[in-house]
């Protein structure tokens, strides 16, 4: 195992939702993170005061070279990127720039400056409308929106780069990340966020009048979209497991689903929020949203087996409770 005392982890997008939770998980496990974030969507306050922070862009090659040298960076966790499916349909070039072109620059910085391990935030959106459910990692990847394609291209770049250079990687294909740190240290803070659970807890707290239900004619049991919601702390813990696996076996690369292997419909999620708050959110049935598949549920056997990852918060009501607690704490902050 690398020496946690000298070897630092560069976390891109560390001021964002998932990145800020990964920093907490790294610190809790004794690792020392360094953050680069351009603060277009992240928040400086989301990064703990004792974590070195650089405001800058991951495509700035001289800046990356300096950070890697100054902090003895041994691994990169790459969260920075754009994540909203419908926005990617309207503005694909933004996604091919932020997610694909900038990832290429970051991978090049890793290779050029001798960083040997790379962990990448990939997505279940790489599968598109999968032929099977739960979806396994070897299911054909046929993304149906630019967001999924922009991430899949980065998976290809990593695979080819790892074959040619001294670098191993883990691409974690996230399903629907939700919830907040149970200790209240971080949470989803983006104003105008589009994630279902975030939107629903905002409505429950009176920050929105209603929640839109995008489509009731999907090929699912109740006609609304089904997703595999995973608690952000379990996802963050999977990143620490991935880091340690990459260091332990430098010849091995991984592409793994990260979800619980269970699906909930939009209506089931809204019912969970009602249960937790003991009130009823106003539902506003609308048409389908562009780029949305019917159902996305992970087969998570591979990550459970390879990393010994043990989810701690596999409970929809608990995820909602933590999201709600964070939303209360956030108040009108953003
Ligand atoms: C999310 C992630 C994406 C990830 C993907 C993997 C976000 C913003 N995007 O996309 O990065 O790769 O999961 O599965 O988190 N819905 C409503 N009303 C709303 C919001 C959503 O009905 O106000 C529905 C959607 O149509 C969908 C489900 O709820 O069926 C989840 O939507 P959302 O939370 O936006 O996430 P995804 O689009 O699945």
Describe this structure in words.
- With 334 residues, the protein is an alpha/beta fold.
- It has 2 domains: 201 residues, NAD(P)-binding Rossmann-like Domain (Rossmann fold, 3-Layer(aba) Sandwich); 102 residues, UDP-galactose 4-epimerase, domain 1 (Alpha-Beta Complex), CATH 3.90.25.
- It contains 10 helices and 14 strands.
- The strands form 4 sheets. Strands 3-2-1-4-5-6-11 form a 7-stranded parallel sheet, with helices on both faces. A 3-stranded mixed sheet has the order 12-9-14.
- Helix 1 links the parallel strand 1 and strand 2.
- Helix 6 packs across helix 10.
- The relative contact order is 0.15.
- The mean pLDDT is 95.
- The protein binds uridine-diphosphate-N-acetylglucosamine.
- The site of uridine-diphosphate-N-acetylglucosamine has 23 residues, from helix 6 and strand 8.
């Amino acid at each position: 195992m690398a020496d946690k005392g000298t070897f630092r982890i560069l976390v891109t997008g560390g001021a964002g939702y998932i990145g800020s939770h990964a920093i907490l998980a790294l610190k809790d496990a004794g690792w020392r993170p360094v953050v680069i974030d351009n603060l277009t969507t992240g928040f400086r306050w989301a990064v703990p005061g004792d974590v070195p922070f650089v405001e800058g862009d991951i495509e700035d090659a001289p800046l990356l070279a300096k950070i890697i040298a100054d902090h003895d960076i041994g691994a990169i966790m790459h969260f920075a990127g754009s994540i909203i499916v419908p926005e990617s349909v309207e503005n694909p070039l933004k996604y091919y720039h932020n997610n694909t072109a900038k990832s290429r620059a970051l991978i090049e910085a890793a290779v050029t400056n001798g960083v040997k391990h790379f962990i990448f935030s990939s997505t279940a959106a790489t599968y598109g409308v999968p032929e099977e459910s739960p979806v396994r990692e070897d299911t054909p990847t046929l993304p149906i929106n630019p967001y999924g394609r922009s991430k899949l291209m980065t998976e290809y770049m990593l695979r080819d780069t790892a074959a040619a250079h001294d670098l191993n990687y883990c691409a974690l294909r996230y399903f629907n990340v939700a919830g907040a740190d149970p200790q209240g240290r971080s949470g989803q803070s983006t104003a105008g966020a589009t994630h279902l659970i975030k939107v629903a807890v905002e409505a429950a707290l009176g920050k929105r009048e209603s929640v839109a239900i995008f489509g009731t004619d999907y090929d699912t049991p109740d006609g609304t979209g089904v997703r595999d919601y995973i608690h952000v702390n379990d996802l963050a813990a999977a990143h620490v497991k991935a880091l340690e696996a990459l260091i332990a076996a430098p010849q091995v690369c991984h592409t793994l689903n990260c979800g619980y292997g269970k699906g909930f419909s939009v209506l089931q999620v809204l019912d969970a929020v009602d249960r937790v708050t003991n009130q009823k959110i106003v539902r506003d049935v609308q048409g389908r949203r562009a780029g949305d598949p019917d159902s996305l549920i992970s087969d998570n056997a591979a990550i459970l087996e390879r990393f010994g990852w043990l989810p701690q918060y596999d409970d929809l009501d608990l995820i909602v409770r933590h999201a709600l607690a964070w939303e209360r704490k956030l108040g009108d902050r953003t």
